[in-house]
Amino acid sequence: MRPVVYVALLGSSVIATPAAAQHQGHEMPMPTPAPAPRSTPEPTPPPAGPSAGHIMSAAPPTPAPEPTDPHAGHAMPAAPTALPADSHAGHDMQAMSTSDSVGTEAGDPNAADDAASQDPMAGMDHSRMGNPPPASPGPEMETPPPPEAGSGPPRAADGVWGVDAMRASRAELQRTHGDFPVFWFQGDRFELQGRDGPDGYLWDLQGYYGGPTSRFWFKSEGEGTFGERIEDAEVQALYAKAIAPFWDVQAGVRQDLAGPDTTYGVIGVQGLSPYMFEVDAALFLSHRGDVTARIEGEVDQRITQRLILQPRAEVNLSAQDIPLLGIGSGIDKIEAGVRLRYEIIREFAPYIGIEQSWRLGGSADYARARGEDPSVTNFLVGIRFWF
Q1: Which of 194, 249, 291, 377 could form a disulfide with 319 if both were Cys (CB 3.0 to 4.6 A apart)?
Q2: Has residue 252 got a pLDDT over 90?
Q3: 3-class SS of residue 116
Q4: pTM of the model
Q5: DSSP string over 215-282
Q6: Helix %, strand %, coil % of the chain (to 5)
Q7: Please, are residues 309 and 384 in contact by the beta-carbon 8 Å criterion?
Q8: 167 versus 60: which is more confidently predicted?
Q9: What is the mean pLDDT of residues 42-67?
């Protein structure tokens, strides 16, 4: 009986040995869990089954819960006290880009935040790094207020060198830029007049000597008929002072050389009006107390660089009748004409033209009494020159 029991025990041990050997010393691989979220999940108990009690491989440790501050535990670099001139000086741009890409590829959601927290230049606008803001003007760069402000020096150089030192410099600068006396002479009209009856002639000369703001002017004008005495002739000596850009006020004397001997005091203005009209207006007071006036105006209309058309008008007026001179009160005489000149050179230009003159009112009566026509048409040939 005992041998039969020994045989049964031996058979059962032989049968159980392969089954036990099948799992003896084996480690069962477990699937790798997915990355855990921020909050730590509850540990999953090992499943029950035929492998219970077997030696299992250790699961990866569960990350500890993070504190409220997302940057807690991160090593933050000290804030720089001052940025260098080049905002990227000392930065390894290639290493920075590599670390960012590695963190991103590794799937670490905190990689970008860590890189931004470790880069002191993160979040800054790099588009203007090459264009620093302009420096604020210091005391040495301040511009003095304009003269109309009523405070400070009227010129910037006065604030640096002083008014007395700059006064001589400005005077020298003015002298070298035109503030010196010059002489100019022009024959504005020097012409022959063809008309019904005896032909006539006319001259109109003027010039000055002086600087740009004060000058001595001289003028002469007259006309006559060939074969007869000179009808009108006068000379003027005037002092002119600039009162505005392109405008002078003139004062002086006028002396008539033909007809009754008459001397006048003169005051007037001469200059260039808008639209380039040259204007010469004067008031005359004779030694007998007669008051007369004259207004002249002309404008150059350039057709080409050498061909110029010049309309011109003149009006003579009188405040009273002057029988001695054959002048009636009101408008004494009107002249209107046009001249076409060709500038061979700027200083010399022949011209042709036509002009109509009228005597009006009492002056027309005086002209008829002398046997003259109060309305005359003149065909003109002349030269204009200056130097």
Answers
A1: 291
A2: yes
A3: helix
A4: 0.59
A5: EEEEEEEEEEETTS-EEEEEEEEEEEEEEETTEEEEEEEEEE-SSS--EEEEEEEEEEEGGGEEEEEE
A6: 20, 40, 40
A7: no
A8: 167
A9: 47
